[in-house]
What we know:
alpha/beta, Rossmann fold, 11 strands, 5-stranded parallel beta sheet, 3 domains, flat, two-stranded antiparallel ribbon
Amino acid sequence: MTVNDIPLISFFQRVLDPLIIMGTLYLAALLFHEPFSGYLLVLMVLAFFVSSAVYQHVDPYRTWRSGRMWAYARDTIFGWCVTLAVLMFLGSSSGLKYYYDERVLLAWAVATPLILLGSHIAVRVAKRPGNSKEVRSVVVVGVNDVGLKFAGICDRHPNLFMQVHGFFDDRDGERRPAELPHPMLGKTGELAQYVRNNGIKMIFISQPISAQPRIRKLIDELQDTTASVYFLPDVYIFDLMQARFDNVGGMPVIAICETPFMGLNSMIKRTSDIVLSGLILLLLAPLMLVIAVAVKLSSPGPVIFRQRRYGLYGEEIIVYKFRSMKVMENGDAVVQARKDDDRVTPIGRFLRRTSLDELPQFINVLQGRMSIVGPRPHAVAHNEQYRKLIKGYMLRHKVKPGITGWAQVNGLRGETATLDKMEARIQYDLDYLRNWSLWLDLWIVLKTVKVVLTRENAF
């Protein structure tokens, strides 16, 4: 299904939202007594087409339909920021920006996302799915975990505009759950007749792939109806990560395990990394110079320790740290630093407790080898050890390693002396991959500051 399956949302996306953006610009011009001119008309037309193109790609309506209103607001505001950036580039390159009152543009920039959000929320509140012609009738074929889960999603999210009438299943009553959220409507052989008699709009088939002959027979029978037929694949038996539907050369495929940083998310992640790491390096350059001198004077050896680590897709990278030890362990046998470790230099002990030894890794971030937030990179020797012991260990390398991570701000910073501690760290890393958002990254950064100040598990 796509957003355009729902006429109301399609109308907002293709027509009403661009018209709201144009109308807000006109109201801002009236507010500051700006006369209507050809230049204003040019900007309105540009805003219409640019915003239409941007919101087709940013597409906040995916989250609107599922009821995730904070995510919807985020996507709407981000789309508007991208629209403004494109319009500013066009205005600067063409010289058009000199023909507009800055007060009008500022008022338009601030008011537009508020009006967009307000109009959509008003429609959301006013439109009652139970009484709306937009609501589509649904039946589910198969009383199993996937079918029940799908019915529950329809019930919890009225903005999907889908009303489940009930289930069809060939199994006996004792083989089905005792309590169902919707009634049993009959056997699969009775499905086509029920669909015709009740004007059912959508049919979702939740059957295992092994039941292919039965599914084919069912689909043949449904050819005599006007209902849309969908297949609910039983991929939920797997441990999914960023599961989604896609196509390769027009052939539909299902992503079972994928990185969260695809398309727009990749651009957001990389942009935030460049901006934050650039600012941090600029602000902390004097401190890093002092640390470099202190390391050099405190013990013999290089200032920067270059570590071999696994990066994105398990490819080997070089990670920088201020040297904090007397030895340079970077081979096939690496012993993690422990409390009161005699290999750590006096200045190194301070750097480790304050995490200042990690500062050179912001250079790795600018190089594109690391990210500010992500699973912490382990020594290559540790990777080879634990990938054999912990299920899903290497999945953490579907993203770039980070200077800080979800595991580190949840008490798993520093030494992982036992297998259960490493397993817990990996579970947090995988949870981060499943649930990534820009807001989660910002939350981890803020929590990292607290963890560093308390100096937990840092030695």
